[in-house]
Amino acid sequence: MLTIGIEEAQFNLRELIASLGPNDEVIITDHDRPVARLVHEQVAGVARPKPGLCEGMVTIVSDDEEHLNGFRGCMP
Fold first, then answer.
1. For the chain (length 76 residues), average pLDDT per consecutive 10?
2. Is there a domain that residue 71 lies in?
3. What element of type H or E holds 73?
């Protein structure tokens, strides 16, 4: 835990934020009184879905391209 004055924190805010690691915190003081706490934000990663979650939800009605005839003018 690091303690820093408010003026120094203002001047070095970008560096303070960049230097924070997991479980790190910086106490910001004003006239030796704690007024704020800067902590590392834990960003939750987006979990990738497991394969097969949509199994049985999609039905392929036809294996031909006849249904695309209406879009021939839009396709290269």
1. 92 92 91 94 77 78 70 75
2. no
3. none
Residue 58 forms part of a structural domain:
no
- Type of residue numbered 20: L
Confidence (pTM): 0.54
Instruction: Tell whether 60 is covered by a domain.
Output: no
CATH number of 11's domain:
3.40.1620
- Looking at the structure of the chain, the number of domains it has is 1
SS (H, E, C) 10-71: HHCHHHHHHHCCCCCEEEEEECCEEEEEEECCCCCCCCCCCCCCCCCCCCCCCCCCHHHHHH
Residue 16 domain boundaries: 2-39
Residue 27 buriedness (CB in 10 A; 0-12 / 13-18 / 19+): middle
